[in-house]
Specification:
The chain contains five helices and six strands; from the N terminus they run βαβαβαβββαα. The chain has about 190 residues and is an alpha/beta fold. A six-stranded mixed sheet has the order 2-1-3-4-5-6.
């Protein structure tokens, strides 16, 4: 089976290929620009993005949306993750979490359409924001929080976890595995 992945993020595309290929699903890039709302849940944003893709006439397609959440703040930054980081960077994150609980989680949603049916799958990766945040760190623009997020069960920030081990912690992998099972059950 072949599925289009509506994303312009090469890291997300590679991860989808790595996760889905062993399940017999070939992932092809669909690099289109999608509008992202600045409110709602990850699932609602993914559903909104999927509707945009379907309105353009594509089928057998998936989209995703993800964000980080700080336990110290209700539903924040969530869907605003990229916008918040772009504006305040590591310095702002350090100041925001000063004196606060450092527990955090990534949450992602994968929305898929196939054979006229749609579904949304969500997953989380729990962990914490490290105690030392260097304002001068150079972020990976696609995943800036990988330099400061320590997943539960590890002592390293995600950036220091070798690529072949990262899938073990991936919320996207978890959601895509659920999606793959759903796709297999379609008539």
């Amino acid at each position: 089976m072949k599925i289009l992945f509506a994303t312009q993020n090469e890291a997300k595309l590679k991860e989808a290929m790595d996760v889905l290929a062993p399940m017999g699903i070939e992932v092809e890039s669909l690099p289109i620009v999608l509008h992202e709302p600045d409110e709602g849940t990850m699932a609602e944003v993914a559903e909104f993005k999927l509707k945009q893709v379907l309105e353009q006439g594509y089928d057998t397609v998936m989209v995703d949306d993800a964000g980080i959440f700080f336990a110290a703040f209700d539903s924040f930054p969530g869907v605003l993750t990229k916008r918040v980081f772009d504006r305040i960077g590591y310095k702002g994150i350090r100041k925001l979490l000063e004196g606060e609980v450092r527990d955090a989680w990534f949450e992602g949603a994968v929305a898929v359409a196939c054979k006229g049916q749609t579904a949304i799958f969500t997953a989380k990766t729990h962990g914490r924001i490290c105690d030392q945040i260097d304002d001068e760190m150079i972020p990976n623009r696609a995943i800036p929080f990988d330099r400061i997020f320590i997943p539960d069960g590890d002592t390293r920030v995600l950036h220091d976890v070798p690529l072949e081990e990262r899938l073990r912690y991936s919320y996207r992998r978890k959601a895509m595995e659920k999606m793959a099972e759903w796709l297999k059950k379609l008539p």
